[in-house]
Amino acid sequence: MTIKKENSAKKIRVEKQVETTNDLWVLRLYVAGQTPKALTAFTNLKKICEEQLNGEYSIEVIDLLRNPQLGADDQIFALPTLVRKLPVPVRKIIGDLSNTERVLVGLDLLPVNNL
Amino acid sequence: MKKLNHELSLKKLPKTPTGIQGFDEITGGGLPKGRPILVCGGAGCGKTLFAIEFLVRGATEFNEPGVFMSFEETNEELTVNVASLGFDLEDLIRRKKLILDHVHIERSEIEETGEYDLEALFIRLGYAIDSIGAKRVVLDTIESLFAGLPNQLILRAELRRLFRWLKDKGVTAIITGEKGDEKLTRQGLEEYVSDCVIMLDHRVNEQTSTRRLRIVKYRGSIHGTNEYPFLIDETGFSVLPVTSLGLKHIVSNERVSSGILALDKMLEGKGYYRGSTVLVSGTAGVGKTSIAAHFAEAACKRGERVLYFCFEESPNQLIRNMLSIGIDLEPWVEKGVLLFHATRPTLYGLEMHLAVTHKAVNAFKPDIVILDPINTFVISDKEFEIKTMLMRIVDFLKASQITALFTSLTSSEGSLESSEAGISSLIDTWILLRDIELSGERNRGMYVLKSRGMANSNQIREFMLTDHGVELREAYIGSKGVLTGSARIAQEAKESAELLIRKKDIERKKREIEQKRNTLNAQVSALHFKFESEESEAIKMIEIEQDQIKRLNQDKLEMAESRHADSENIKSINAKKTK
Asked: Which residues does chain A have within 8 Å of residue B103's beta carbon, measured at their own beta carbons?
């Protein structure tokens, strides 16, 4: 397990990703403060990652309220947005990730149990 | 009273000047301050340019930084595109006067799952606004969101929130929108932005395109409701305020020479009024351009600036042709006091011509404007439009105290005056050139049809183009009417021959009389001489006679003495002798 960020006690922290080289999947979740939507999105994302990505992933949560200048880099306009930085091509999934199937389509993944 | 005025002005809607030429005039000061404004129109009508100029002028002229959020063009594209208008966006960005933010929305890269909002857009915009203290914002074209995001319900709710948020931020925001089929915009943005709506239009009529601008609504402000032609050229956007012009221009009593001495003489010896409108009309090849060139040259010599619009000839051709009648315009062009502005009338529509004229005049600030000729605008029977356009030009030039000279080609059929009835009322001084066909020749005649405010000559003059310019001759007016050209020359020769003969007759008569007088004098003197000689002879005879009488008496006396006659006899003889 290489989840670098934990949703401990409903707190989303932002940490710089250091060791991305080993991870097959580099995901970035953009939120603005701890809104219900943001929390739902993070919970959903963590669940999907644990189920589908076999530990080879890292999630970076970026709070635009703290770092508004980062929004332009990934062309973020809606919140929450999940950006798949790796593997390329970059994919974006907007919304609270409540529909697992669509998230998997967005990440270009097929559910594990279908393999 | 002053206080009341102050209170009223407080209640007035504060406005943000756009700095766009003419636009602030028709809106009475610009766009509503701190409110969103919708600028809509079809593709290629200049929405983005309008918006970007609003920002650039704001940053450079009014010290109001701006944020441009683009949903279509990338920052690089935008920078290059507006560089052709002379806007240096990179410099403004460096000086922290402008922020470009390109929002890239690619449908294929986006998956939607569940609830979301556009908070990130707000944050980006808010961050950009706060980082340079922006007062102006442009969203171009926010409708792209509709293409990128499938969930319209969320989008519409978020847009409403966005415009509310912009108002709260206190920024003046331009939102551009693509024209819809029946609505102002395709996505009905007018529903959200209702304070001020500006419509841009790009219409093609008879193969010429005209850009027009209309203010559809402007809450809390009076505004011009017409369609105003506008222009996009190398200096940006300019709107032509047409209805703001009234008939209130000041008039001048100063006179300016027409450059032709004889023509000046026909106009009280002084020429045209400054600021008046002169029309030179006539059939083809009668020398309208020559009169215009004379006027231009004379003005340049006086040190005035002349703007010459030629719609038929290129400047070089015109200069060459005028050289043939002894008018050299080239030095004035080099000196920069004479500027030619040559365009084909078909290049763009009437309104565009008007806008171009307006702009060129404003830029060059001439004392004299020449339009040669105006009737090439007549491509079809759009007489009304031409009249309104000319009226606008005339009013505009008059308001700026510019003397204008128009030339106009009239067709040879029909009356020369009536064909121009449409514009005659606009003209102050109307010089008519006409050809006079007589005895196998075609000559030019000229007269002043009207000249407001002066006692002009009513005579038809013969108009001649010589290698040293235009010359006017007194036309021969006799029993056969007006004679011109060789007929006039023949008539004049005939007259001068007759005059010569008469002169000689008189001289001969004079000589005859002189001779007669001489003969008479000679005769008189001869008679005189004859008389004198006769007289002297007679005197001599009388003297001889007297001598003889004397001698006879002496003899008698001597004889009497010798005879000692009666003394009394002697006494009487002596008395006779003494006598």
From this structure: 75, 77
